């Protein structure tokens, strides 16, 4: 589906160098023409108003008609005169407060944007980036719809978004959060490694989960994260494919920290959207944290769950806290592991009130990235009977809420945590042509879970968990990925289900 967008308001400018006086004179002449025309009509009306030798009664009526007609003509003349004069005065006023001359472009039809650019080219004292200006204008134009999920993307932004959805990035292959640790009596800021991506340069270089990157650069070139700040340090850590990222890691050892210099070659890596681990206090419990739903998620989820099963896990916590959502094809494929064939997993309603349903059926995509979300018949419902609990909170949104809603509606697992975000709107992205390029994302549908029979939905209200549990103030001071088990009241409450 595509959408074409142009500026449709056009004006023709002829002889743009003519003077203001000429314009006023022409308008005044137009007024005189209207007045003269009206006077001629009045004279003709007067001549035809009466005829000699008619009955007085009829003559009286004709005279009355004449008087009314004459008054009407005079009023019409006055109104026309006022209207034309008002336009003349309006033009004179506008010309008195803005510059009257325009750039000379004879016999050309211009849009207002063309005219604005002509003014800037001719008169603006400074340099401008027209492409950046147009992008800013389009972003503001789309934002003015009032749709908080709408957006205009430049070509570069669109490509970057696609790469993110495809689970590709250039880097060393680690997930990090901003953190602090104490070293030799001093607090130091660091990039705390919470996950090392499979088959990544970082994994091959021996970087481990819980490593703390305290410096970017090594030797004389190293600069502390404390000095650079999180964003500054991250910017230096990133770079082009084939270049080296140099940094200093502090790794826990014998009650202290070991300092390790690293030089890792950046490469294109597949990002991690599913993080798994075995619960320390109960090795039969596996935890699967889904950070988002992109093209890589379904296969990663299946692989991580099978790894946990191979380690002896028989009970599973699916953690969707702070998951912002993602792609519909991704959530469809993940839900297919739990729903039965032909189960409705989503219902949509468009702006015209048309309602559609999508069911779990085998699906095969041609696009190489989307193919990672193929739904294979033998995998449908394969994990339906697992002993599971789902965690959610106010950061669980969009596609992640669709996961929660289906699990709740179909009775697949207990939902524990806090009310979800409440985004039950679906967006589509449409390409732009005619020189604008890029694309526009707009809300096109409301959506509901497969089990929502009355189509009430959860947009703006969220999904209420089966068991409501909030985190303590102390727990909220921690980064969600670094929260100690003993402070995670939501996880502790979820584990009670298994007991």
Give structural notes.
The protein is an alpha+beta fold. The protein is 35% helix and 25% strand. The protein is built from 12 helices and 21 strands. The strands form 5 sheets. Strands 5, 6, 7, 8, 9 and 10 form a 6-stranded antiparallel sheet that branches. Strands 12-13-14-17-18-21 form a 6-stranded mixed sheet, sandwiched between helices. Strands 3, 15, 16, 19 and 20 form a 5-stranded antiparallel sheet that branches. Helix 1 packs antiparallel against helix 2 and helix 8 (297-310) packs parallel to helix 9 (328-336). It is globular and about 115 Å long.
Q: Strand fraction band? A: 25-35%
Q: How many helices?
A: 12
Shape: globular
Determine the fraction of residues in helical runs and give it as a percent range. 25-40%
Number of strands: 21
Judged by helices, strands and strand pairing, the structural class is alpha+beta
Cα(first) to Cα(last) distance is 51 Å
Mean pLDDT: 84
Biggest sheet, in brief?
6 strands, antiparallel
Task: Extract low-pLDDT stretches.
Answer: 1-60, 100-107
Q: Taking Cα atoms only, what radius of gyration do you get, to the nearest Å? A: 35 Å
